[in-house]
Amino acid sequence: MTTLSDFPITARWPATHPDRIQLYAFPTPNGVKVSIALEEMGLPYEAHKVPLGDAFVKSAEFTSLNPNGKIPAIIDPDGPDGSPVGIFESGAILIYLADKTGRFIGSTPAARYEVLQWLMFQMGGIGPMFGQLGFFWKFAGSEIEDPRPRERYVSEARRLLGVVERQLEGREWIAGDYSIADMAIAPWLNALGFYGATDVVGWPELPNCRAYVERFLERPAVKIGMVTPPRD
Fold it and tell me: pTM, whole model, 2 decimals?
């Protein structure tokens, strides 16, 4: 029978509570998606801080669970067949947890696909484009003299925000009821402030987006998830 000790990652990040879901993450927009979901769903879990440096995410222990070498990843000791299962990719983890609990993924088949399409919109659009915006606006890419990369990602971020702004017209949450799509999208919108990019992407002219993030950040589970695992 499979046990947590069969997962090499537990040699470096040992489980104090092996009966709980093991979360391996760092409090980035991608990382907090999962901690927020775990808090919202009331699932017992143990959070392990995995810093973003290659010595951690590219280590043999971590890539044994996620061969792509990116946070987050989880091990659920009570997988679908009763045995532990490891899962990587934040979108896949959110779907797994929503299916496990039957929550935050729509109450009908049609509502489920409404949620999933907006989750995929974040995974394929907002996440990659905002991440590149951060790189070229705040981090090492900001030193590049050629303005075209910055202009490209600023423009695309503005376009994606326009999609979200229109979708939120007359509604509180992106797919109707609060869902894993919101847990995926809102942390990335909130990250624009960390990047120092709110003005350049037109954030002051997006009242629906601003109110959306404010509502999201006021949720008790979000307040905990946003700082789990702690940076320090």
Answer: 0.96
